[in-house]
Specification:
This protein is an alpha/beta fold. The protein folds into two domains: about 240 residues, Aldehyde Dehydrogenase, Chain A, domain 1, CATH 3.40.605.10; about 180 residues, 3-Layer(aba) Sandwich (Aldehyde Dehydrogenase, Chain A, domain 2). The protein is about 35% helix and about 20% strand. It contains 15 helices and 21 strands. The strands form five sheets. It has a seven-stranded mixed beta sheet with strand order 15-16-17-14-13-18-19, with helices on both faces. Strands 10-9-8-11-12-20 form a six-stranded mixed beta sheet, with helices on both faces. Helix 12 links the parallel strand 16 and strand 17. The longest helix is centred in the N-terminal third of the chain and has 22 residues. The radius of gyration is 25 Å and the shape is globular. About 50% of the residues are buried.
Length: about 500
């Protein structure tokens, strides 16, 4: 906790009711570059009253009705202008995403920011939707016209994780605004900078009325419970761990809020014996080690058939050894740092757990000896063989570059193991026989199944999980609908009261 009166790093305040404001405590916390340990800035530490102030601003802005009742086409037009403004500063955003989150420059510039812009523009387009949905004509008990009206929910509290800060901010803000809601965004304490910059860009456009978009930084243990329990908040959207998701459900229960929860995963990645091995090997490495395995849908359980196991593993380990761990701004780096010292220790602890459980580390993760990486949170990839599906490394989300390989004999066996988990976020299937791969995908209990691909998330397709991987869906029209209430309106067409109300109807009694 700091008073950043004398420092050269930028200071970031709260954004409430269209203004940047200092926190009531006047306290700030540093955010660090996980590759170098450098302080990147000092971020406001909000308390519960700061959060309530943001909630009141969002409530007043929604109840005012200007944004909520705006014609869909006009709201869409304004959101498209906002996306244009964000796109003009995409390299500035990529720099912050790389430095604050530890992702590689390649990932920031080729994936995180461009994909976020595509998804934002998708929701800007969806904002121009017809809120009225006619229902079939109803004849009984009287002729009537009926329709469904989709309306914005209201005030949305949104809590995002540290692994994809810009993309997650878009996934929350864009559909909420497109549907006519108001927002309080809570970025992760580890990685607030790209979300802060995004809100700054939106503020600079002057296109949103005050209070429609608010941003509050600070401890999750303080800001989160206030957002979840405050009766003025109508919906909570959260992306993060299943453990925290359970807490959010409990906190929101007192006011029975609507919720969208995108939680943890331990996704199975299934190789069928007829798979293209070159494609499947590289795809399996991508499934696991993209962003150091710090993705909720990572394919960290790899199922390989006995018939091709030896050849597949030889290729996999050989290719994994070629992955370069290095500074994120090096264009040849494949794996940058993990997010924090705490996460690094967690990963190392799980590696020891795997060894103690009897798994074999055919590739053992270690801290690099390169002095250039000494101040960062770096670790090389780990691949375990001789893994049983009931081991902790096969059941618990590690959120690091650790792959558990499980051998199987029959497809029925691997499907049973794939589904034997509390999670159901995503899965992968690799095969030259697409029809067969689809039949396997149909039996996997997961919200997304990729065939001969991984991590490809489309703006048009729903994303979310089965079981303890979450509630609801993000993206596509499905994600937009999560931010709407559904109202049925019935219009009588008979203009008569005869024999329609129960007290008008005479039912003969049986003698």
């Amino acid at each position: 906790m700091l008073h950043p009166d004398t420092n050269e790093a930028p200071v970031y305040n709260l954004y409430i009711n269209g203004q940047w404001r200092t926190p009531r405590s006047e306290l700030y916390e540093p955010t660090f570059d996980p590759a170098t340990g450098e302080i990147l800035g000092y971020v406001a530490k909000a308390d519960a009253e700061d959060t309530r102030e943001a909630i009141r601003a969002a409530r007043e802005a929604f109840d005012d009705g200007y944004w909520a009742s705006m014609a869909p086409g006009e709201r869409s037009r304004l959101l498209h202008q906002i996306v244009d403004a964000v796109e003009e500063r995409q390299f500035e955003l990529a720099e912050l995403e790389m430095r604050d989150g530890g992702c590689t420059w390649r990932k920031a510039t080729l994936m995180d920011i461009p994909v976020g812009l595509i998804h934002f523009r998708h929701f800007a387009k969806l904002a121009d939707f017809e809120p009225l949905e006619p229902l079939p004509q109803i004849q009984f008990p009287a002729l009537s016209y009926n329709y469904v009206r989709r309306e914005p929910i209201g005030v949305c509290g949104q809590i995002i994780p540290w692994n994809f800060p810009f993309l997650m901010a878009i996934w929350k803000i864009a559909p909420a605004l497109a549907a006519g809601n108001t927002v309080i965004l809570k970025p992760a304490s580890y990685t607030p900078l790209s979300a802060l910059k995004l809100v700054e860009i939106i503020h600079d456009t002057g296109l949103l009325p005050p209070g429609v978009l608010n941003l509050v930084t600070g401890p999750g243990q303080v800001v989160g419970p206030e957002l979840c329990s405050n009766p003025m908040v109508d919906k909570i959207a959260f992306t993060g761990s299943t453990e925290v998701g359970r807490d959010i459900i409990r906190q929101a229960a007192s006011t029975v809020k609507k919720m969208t929860l995108e939680l943890g995963g331990k996704s199975p990645n299934i190789i069928l014996e007829d798979a293209d091995l070159d494609l499947a090997v590289d795809g399996s490495l991508w499934a696991t080690f993209m962003h150091n395995g710090q993705a909720c849908e990572s394919g960290t359980r790899l199922f390989v058939p006995t018939s091709i196991y030896d050849e597949f593993m030889e290729r996999l380990v050989d290719r994994a050894r070629q992955l370069k761990v290095g500074l994120p701004d090096d264009g040849e780096t494949d794996l940058g740092p993990v997010i924090s010292a705490g996460q690094l220790h967690t990963i190392e602890d799980y590696i020891q757990v795997g060894i103690q459980e009897g798994a074999t580390p055919v590739l053992l993760g270690e801290r690099p000896t390169d002095p250039e990486l000494a101040n960062g949170f770096f670790i090389t990839p780990t691949i375990f063989t001789d893994v049983r599906n009931d081991m902790r490394i096969a059941q618990e989300e590690i959120f690091g570059p650790v792959l558990a390989v499980i051998k199987y004999d029959t497809v029925d066996e691997t499907i049973r193991m794939a589904n034997d988990t509390i999670y159901g976020l995503a899965a992968g299937v690799w095969s030259r026989d697409v029809e067969r791969a689809i039949s396997v995908a149909n039996r996997i209990k997961a919200g997304t199944v990729w065939i001969n691909d991984y991590h490809l998330i489309s703006a048009e397709a729903p994303f979310g999980g089965y079981k303890q991987s979450g509630l609801g869906r993000e993206l596509g029209v499905y994600g937009l609908h999560e931010y709407t209430e559904v109202k049925h309106i019935h219009v009588d067409l008979t203009n008569s009261r005869d024999a329609r109300f129960w007290y008008d109807i005479v039912v003969p009694r049986k003698e």
